[in-house]
Amino acid sequence: MKYYKYLFLLVFIGCSSSKIVYDYDSQANFSSYKTFNFFEDAGKGLNELDVKRVTNELTTSLEAKGMRLAENPDIYINILSSERPSINRNTIGLGIGSGGRNVGFGISGGIPIESRKINQQLTVDFVESKNNQLIWQGVANSEIKEKTSPEERRIYYQKLIKKMVSNYPPK
C-alpha cells in the first residue's frame, strides 16, 4: 500500500507539464568548471524549505555530473522564483433536452470545478566566479497545486531540477 501512494504521487506530479528553456555563453569553456557553490541570497521568491529542496537537488544533480561543492568555486549558482496564482475554471455541463414535431425544449447548466494552482517561474543562473559573468541559465515555467504536501513538493522539485540540469554542460 505504501508503494501505491508513491506511485500515485509520481503520476500526479508527472501530469503537470513544465516548459524549460536554456541559454548559455557560447564562448565559455564549460569543461574548466569543476566546483560550485550558491550565492548567499540564492532562493529569492522561495520559502526557506523550498530553497533547501532546490539546493539539495541541484547539489545532487551536479555531483552526479562530476562537479563538487567548494568554498572557492569556479561557478556560483543563483536561484530566483516568481509565483502568481492561477485559477483553472473548468465546468461540467448538464443538459436535458427534448424535441419532436418541431417543438424543442432544453435546459443546461454548469457546475464549476475550481482547482487553485500556482504558476511558478524558476530561474537557475550559473555565474563564473572570476569575472562575475553569467555563463548558463535555465528557466522553468510550470504549475503546482496550491495545497501540496512536503513530499509532493520534494518530488516536484526533484523532477524539475533533473530536467533542467540535464542540459548542463551544453554540448
From TrEMBL:
- Organism for this UniProt entry: Tenacibaculum caenipelagi
The lineage, from the top, is: Bacteria, Pseudomonadati, Bacteroidota, Flavobacteriia, Flavobacteriales
Protein name, UniProt field: Uncharacterized protein DUF4136
Residue ranges constituting the DUF4136 domain according to the UniProt record: 21-170
